[in-house]
Amino acid sequence: MKIQNLYLLLLLALSACQQATPSDPVTEPKVDEISPEQAIQQLVIDAFDQVWSALDTNSLARLHTDDFLLLEHGEVWTNDSIINYQRRAMTGMLEQGYQRTNRMEFLTTEGSGNLAWTTYHNYGTWTVGQDTTGQAHWLESAVAVKTAEGWKLKMLHSTRVGN
């Protein structure tokens, strides 16, 4: 009887020492958990992929503030002028089968509270099928603000490098 009690006592002691392991799988961070630095870099990538490559006019409201400005090599663009460009470019791109891909090399990225900013090199490549038809390189900066709907780009400044 004493041996059975000893085994029971040992079993209870061992089970008390075991730590519970979390059963929840790893989840993606919530929007509020994303740092301003992560938010602005992702916004820049999304803006070029959706606004300038996919020419998605609906993405502007989600990615840009209402008063967004693009300072593009001496020109001032607003959301309206970007939409007009998208509509014109879409016709030609679809007819000819153009595709634009983007690559960013972030140089600096900082954030404080509801404001974030970054500088980066932006490389654009245009292709038709397997053929590269054009390439461009810009040095750019971006400013983003956290709104009630989440992070949005407020301003981009772009200067062509080379050509």
Question: What's the SSE blueprint?
Answer:
Blueprint: H1 2-17, H2 36-53, H3 59-63, E1 64-72, E2 75-77, H4 79-96, E3 98-112, E4 115-128, E5 131-147, E6 150-160
Describe the structure.
The chain has 163 residues and is an alpha+beta fold. The chain has a single domain, classed as Nuclear Transport Factor 2, Chain: A (Roll), CATH 3.10.450. Helices cover 35% and strands 42% of the residues. It contains 4 helices and 6 strands, in the order αααββαββββ. Strands 2-1-6-5-4-3 form a 6-stranded mixed sheet. A hairpin with a 2-residue loop joins β5 (131-147) and β6 (150-160). The longest helix has 18 residues, at 36-53. The protein starts with a helix and ends with a strand. The relative contact order is 0.17.
